Inverse folding.
């Protein structure tokens, strides 16, 4: 089969499309013919060596497709079933072995592209708004990268729970997308000469001087200081990614000085640790899509051969919504 392999740690140029042996499903796995694979920042962290990985390795962990073979111990799936997944290594490929415990049944009416685009970013947005900082009516939220894959889903889920969303974006086109998703206010960070001081001032102007109850920050290094300074007393900074780079060590006395603040660094794996929790999150998202209550924007698709270009676009922050690879 054809697959995208990271030959060594480095930039997008280390990605090569090559022929590799077809995977053989273990007893607790299903073999899936991939219809679409999700492109995510975690893939770039693994490719670059920011996250420890063996090299070479087939890139990717998310996608959707049709089951073509089941392992001896699999009881809930059969060939022909449509599934999606957020955590199956080697997903930038024509075939991938997916653990039965990680496979999400795709309901009728949800197409392959939507099914591939939703698991990782959708369940991330779900746990951020329901578990890490459970939102309710009256909460003020600052959300970075409001037109990104997580950002658009997170905005919709936050607004549906009654929160007021202040989103940051990089352009007028992205502002329009963030507002359409439900953002009450949108700030264009590229128009600010000093993000660290000017963004918190704008946020406080919008919140009567208080600041926001929570910041959802997937950008990391470039926005962390501004995020911390935008919080209300006893506010929470949720750092769930680092698209601009990882945040360096922080002096915890800054939390005291800022108003008894909280900082947390959650991951999806800890919020889908059981099959029941995984299915709860996925089912709520698929049901919302089927009901027309959640819009999943696929911003760009690339063939497997152009995986490096997909990574460049994602890391260059030129994308909106979800980026997919099509085998």
């Amino acid at each position: 089969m054809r697959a995208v392999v990271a030959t060594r740690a480095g930039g997008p140029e280390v990605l090569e499309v090559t022929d590799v042996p077809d995977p053989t499903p273990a007893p607790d796995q299903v073999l899936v013919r991939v219809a679409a694979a999700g492109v995510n920042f975690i893939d770039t962290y693994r490719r670059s060596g920011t996250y420890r990985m063996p090299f070479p390795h087939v890139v990717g962990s998310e996608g959707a497709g049709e089951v073509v073979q089941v392992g001896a111990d699999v009881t809930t799936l059969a060939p022909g079933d449509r599934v999606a997944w957020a955590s199956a290594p080697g997903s930038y490929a024509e075939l991938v072995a997916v653990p039965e415990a990680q496979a999400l049944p795709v309901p009728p009416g949800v197409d392959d592209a939507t099914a591939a685009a939703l698991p990782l970013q959708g369940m991330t947005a779900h746990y951020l708004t329901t578990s890490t900082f459970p939102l309710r009516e009256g909460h003020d939220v600052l959300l970075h990268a409001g037109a990104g894959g997580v950002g658009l889903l997170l905005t919709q889920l936050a607004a549906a729970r009654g929160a007021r969303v202040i989103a940051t974006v990089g352009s007028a086109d992205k502002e329009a997308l963030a507002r359409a998703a439900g953002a009450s206010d949108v700030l264009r960070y590229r128009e600010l000469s000093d993000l660290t001081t000017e963004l918190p001032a704008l946020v406080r102007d919008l919140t009567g001087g208080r600041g926001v109850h929570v910041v959802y920050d997937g950008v990391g290094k470039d926005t962390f200081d501004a995020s911390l300074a935008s919080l209300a007393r006893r506010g929470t900074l949720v750092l769930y990614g680092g698209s601009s780079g990882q945040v360096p060590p922080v002096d915890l006395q800054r939390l005291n000085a800022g108003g008894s603040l909280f900082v947390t660094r959650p991951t999806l794996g800890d919020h889908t640790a059981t099959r029941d929790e995984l299915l709860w999150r996925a089912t709520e998202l698929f049901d919302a899509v089927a009901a027309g209550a959640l819009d999943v924007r696929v911003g760009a698709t690339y063939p497997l051969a152009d995986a490096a270009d997909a990574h460049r676009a994602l890391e260059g922050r030129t994308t909106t919504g979800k980026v997919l690879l099509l085998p």
Summary: The mean pLDDT is 97. The longest helix spans residues 275-290.
